[in-house]
């Protein structure tokens, strides 16, 4: 059997975190440990794959930027175009892992596995979760079943798809969940099992980002609350936002005053999408007045992912119906 070749791209995060004491699970420096050290801590990886490591960034993922995410997307496509590269594992902080995973899932031009992993406890902790997560991520990346599943997130023996996965807990190692449909599978004592296939598609090759796109359109997220009067809608419009995601109540419901301000923004050509501050479920068409104002709905995307999809859509079109079709599809 040929040993598969996996590239590990490191970006930092708690998986590469270093704390003063081995009992500390907060107050550590994320991204302090390099990829070669992380790989050396898990010699079993070299038994299942031929692995090369590359450091893309060394940051706490709360500071992840779209510049780094676009660099990652381009590097993944570059590497996976080689026949000799069978898959990619990306080490990443958990805070924004879902955003990077989703952006990559839209931009990756491959059916080879791209697997993100991270950790909730720093590498120096007594019970660090990073080493097993990294090993499991490589196990998934070499698995034939992982092909054509989009971008995956592997942590705590669980496999999740980029479209649905979200960080649900502030500190627990069991933080990643897929509230709409559940996880895709598990890694049980080293055995990779997919119980469901991801049904989501990445963008067609024709929609790939051209090399000269370095900055994505300005899309802001506004978070709804009882009594919201829409002040921040006006602030975002005045600041030049090209798109707005409103994290509404329940099925993306908009408080009256907010609706009026969002409708005014949409009338000016700013693309407005309702998402939800709720944890699970699709945001669907709801009130006729939303449709009349061309306020769109995010389907199963949470606000942070809806923002990414709208940014990519805005590179192609500003037409609300065309953009709604993106949300219906991706
Ligand atoms: N557990 C973690 O990885 C959290 C860290 N702040 C990060 O996202 O980089």
TrEMBL record:
<dbReference type="InterPro" id="IPR040919">
    <property type="entry name" value="Asparaginase_C"/>
</dbReference>
<dbReference type="GO" id="GO:0006528">
    <property type="term" value="P:asparagine metabolic process"/>
</dbReference>
<dbReference type="Pfam" id="PF17763">
    <property type="entry name" value="Asparaginase_C"/>
</dbReference>
<dbReference type="InterPro" id="IPR027473">
    <property type="entry name" value="L-asparaginase_C"/>
</dbReference>
<comment type="similarity">
    <text>Belongs to the asparaginase 1 family.</text>
</comment>
<feature type="active site">
    <location>
        <position position="94"/>
    </location>
</feature>
<feature type="binding site">
    <location>
        <position position="61"/>
    </location>
    <ligand>
        <name>substrate</name>
    </ligand>
</feature>
<dbReference type="InterPro" id="IPR027475">
    <property type="entry name" value="Asparaginase/glutaminase_AS2"/>
</dbReference>
<feature type="domain" description="L-asparaginase N-terminal">
    <location>
        <begin position="5"/>
        <end position="197"/>
    </location>
</feature>
<keyword id="KW-0378">Hydrolase</keyword>
<feature type="active site">
    <location>
        <position position="14"/>
    </location>
</feature>
<feature type="active site" description="O-isoaspartyl threonine intermediate">
    <location>
        <position position="14"/>
    </location>
</feature>
<dbReference type="InterPro" id="IPR004550">
    <property type="entry name" value="AsnASE_II"/>
</dbReference>
<dbReference type="InterPro" id="IPR006034">
    <property type="entry name" value="Asparaginase/glutaminase-like"/>
</dbReference>
<dbReference type="InterPro" id="IPR037152">
    <property type="entry name" value="L-asparaginase_N_sf"/>
</dbReference>
<dbReference type="InterPro" id="IPR036152">
    <property type="entry name" value="Asp/glu_Ase-like_sf"/>
</dbReference>
<protein>
    <recommendedName>
        <fullName>asparaginase</fullName>
        <ecNumber>3.5.1.1</ecNumber>
    </recommendedName>
</protein>
<dbReference type="InterPro" id="IPR020827">
    <property type="entry name" value="Asparaginase/glutaminase_AS1"/>
</dbReference>
<dbReference type="Pfam" id="PF00710">
    <property type="entry name" value="Asparaginase"/>
</dbReference>
<dbReference type="GO" id="GO:0004067">
    <property type="term" value="F:asparaginase activity"/>
</dbReference>
<feature type="domain" description="Asparaginase/glutaminase C-terminal">
    <location>
        <begin position="218"/>
        <end position="327"/>
    </location>
</feature>
<dbReference type="InterPro" id="IPR027474">
    <property type="entry name" value="L-asparaginase_N"/>
</dbReference>
<feature type="binding site">
    <location>
        <begin position="94"/>
        <end position="95"/>
    </location>
    <ligand>
        <name>substrate</name>
    </ligand>
</feature>
